[in-house]
Amino acid sequence: MKITVIGSGYVGLVSGICFAKIGHEVVCVDKDNSKISKLNSGVIPIYEPGLKEVLDEVVAAKKISFSTNLKAALQNSPAVFIAVGTPQDEDGSADLSYVLAAAKEIAELADSYKLIITKSTVPAGTGAKIKKLISATSPDLDFAVASNPEFLREGAALDDFLNPDRIVIGVEDKKSQQILAEIYAKFPTEKLVVSDIITAELIKYASNSFLAAKISFINEMADLCEIIGGDIKKLSKAIGLDSRIGEKFLNPGPGFGGSCFPKDIMAILNVAKENKVELSLINSVITSNSQRKIRMSEKISQALGGEVRGKKIALLGLAFKANTDDIRYSPAIVIAAELAKKGAEIFATDPEAIENSKRELVEFKNVHFVSDAYKASTDADLIVIATEWQTYRELDFSKISCRKIVDLRNLFEAEKMAELGFEYSFIGKKN
Ligand code: UDX
Fold it and tell me: Which of 18, 28, 225, 260 is labelled catalytic?
């Protein structure tokens, strides 16, 4: 089937390339000329492991093209995915302006049946807004709307798309369901979860909110261990062995970041508030997580005896997690800014996220960027590990003279670090 994907960002690009890989003919459309020309010359504008290889494969098979011309893309394409950004508005609600603009443009340009499918994360009720807008724009257009939320983790997006736990489709009629079933025909039918549109939109928010709550829970258990003792790694493993809990997303850290969790929990809270529904648990997750990032800089300051002014701190990791260049809501960025404000000299490094971080931390003259962990650690008073990159798990400690480490990702065994002569502080260690 010919598929149009509007928006060539993290979600649209991975989805378009994967739709092509499973055999569809895909046109990815974006308004950003430079992004489209880069993609047409085989350059991927984001860091996503393995994506370039699949792009080359589907380009060679002539299964995908990139264009700024939506009208041409829509020709003979019954399925149109909206995968544009839904950034957070000042009040925490999801900004739907890009989604609605895309819907309007489809209505203005389409001259045959269209199934308009939101792939972007959108608040419950957006499908109805899109339907109303398209009907008002083009009363004679034969169309339907649907929801097909993505569950792609940055850094693991290809695997998440090609080996999904489930494929959620929210539809309003049988024809829409048949089209989406055909799009996903390569996957086992039991993976398909069919619902109405609002339920599909809510499933996405509920999934992310639950995962965010699970992370905040283990982070708070780590806080308890820091005060009363207890081994957070053993605690996490033991509760995760309960099949009702599950072992994933129980790694304590500096707080969750990324382009989804922080935005999505604010958005679901907003929808609830608009409808006078109290989501007290979600509220406390937001508070717990945002305070945590600030508290991490206090933990670091304590490791230096309470005074960071003039101290040299090596910050290993800037991305919000490993295997991405994305620094949106990254705890490491918050920590760098907090320590810089207190007068520390920060020497920051990250395998992929330095360029993105430079823009974010440009106001701080005492934040310096260096190419690797060993350079950052030279003459440092303290080393902070903020992102769980594999390269930091493989550090050669014989090359590191600084003896103080604050590990916010619990990458190492405390006993081993003590044997190596390090003053090793980690998440969940009793002070
Ligand atoms: C998330 C969802 O996982 C994905 O399904 C959705 O489509 C988009 O949002 P992503 O934001 O890429 O994906 O990152 P994820 O791997 O979920 O991690 C989110 C945050 O939680 C990161 O800051 C990560 O460091 C943190 N995290 C994750 C923990 O602190 N502990 C964990 O055990 C897991």
Answer: 260
